[in-house]
Amino acid sequence: IAAGVAGTLFLGYCIYFDKKRRSDPDYKKKIRERRRRQRKIGSSGSRNEIPNLRDQEAVQ
């Protein structure tokens, strides 16, 4: 019974703070800025490709 009560309280805690976070007026603005930065970094950064595991030289 205690585990069920603790689980319910934890879930309520998560829902409450997620709602509070999303209701913040700057939430969408911050999300857009973060995605814009990630796109900029992702397009200019080097992409690490997985080598062909069947090719011994590529793996080394």
Automatic annotation (TrEMBL):
Stretches the record annotates as Disordered: 25-60
Cited Pfam families: MAS20
Biased composition (Basic residues): 29-40
GO molecular function: mitochondrion targeting sequence binding; protein transmembrane transporter activity
GO biological process: intracellular protein transport; protein import into mitochondrial matrix; protein targeting; tRNA import into mitochondrion
Annotated organism of origin: Pseudolycoriella hygida
Recorded GO CC terms: mitochondrial outer membrane translocase complex
Lineage of source species: Eukaryota, Metazoa, Ecdysozoa, Arthropoda, Hexapoda
InterPro entries noted in UniProt: MAS20 (IPR002056), MAS20_rcpt_metazoan (IPR022422)
Protein name as annotated: Mitochondrial import receptor subunit TOM20 like
Keywords attached to this entry: Receptor
